[in-house]
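Ticket #4471: structure output looks truncated?

Reporter: J.K.
Steps to reproduce: submitted the chain below (252 residues) through the standard prediction queue, then opened the result file.
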Amino acid sequence: MDQHQALLTYCLRRGDDNLILSHRLGEWCGHGPQLEEDIALTNRALDLIGQARNYLQYAAEVEGKGRTEDDLAFLRSERQFVNTMLVEQLNGDYAHTICRSFLYDAWHLPLQQALTKSADERIAAIAGKAVKEVSYHLRTSSEWMIRFGDGTEESHVRAQTALDALWTFTGDLFVQDDVDAILVKAGVVPDMAPIRSAFDKTVETVLAEATLERPVDGHMATGGRQGKHSEHLGYLLAEMQYLQRAHPGAQW
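Returned output as attached by the reporter:
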């Protein structure tokens, strides 16, 4: 694998993460527990769509085969998606959705902050635009984790249950392979060690205030970066890609 191919794969990974999580959050539209939160989740989904478009547009340009970000979003199969397994997990109840977002945000923010220093000017610019949005995402999800964990007995149980169920998927966030090795050496992306340290610090701080227990690291589900996913992604893509699959080339 050369640096060109590594860059393409990396942009797909970043774009797919945001695209799939955006779709999951969009499923809450009209179903939020409060009107304000319904709108907040939709706005967050729009932020992630914007970030996904930036990375997928760049991926399409790097690929150089005339495809667009829409082609990459709507015309790839399940095994061609390289998002982390965390983002494709079902919404569950509101505590589950918030916990999934919190774990992703705690990883996403330090990563985007580090990418602002990328030797690739395009990636640095995408990350620079995303940092402000992702900072807000983490602040909001952290506040909700504390409200759930340090709230009622019921909310505490629901938050801890969600955390225990989702923790196994955090391992997928930190897997590094040849793609990362090539781009780290070129100064395009950061090594995951400091990102992991920042993630651990955020998680420990928020969980302590939320009176929630950090799950013990056991079996960690991985494989998303290589196109190996949980059973949920296929169903998500069937819904997300339906219009383009049913009416190829459809335009508004």
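Triage note (M.O.): checked the attachment and the full token line is present. The mean pLDDT is 95.
Status: closed, working as intended.
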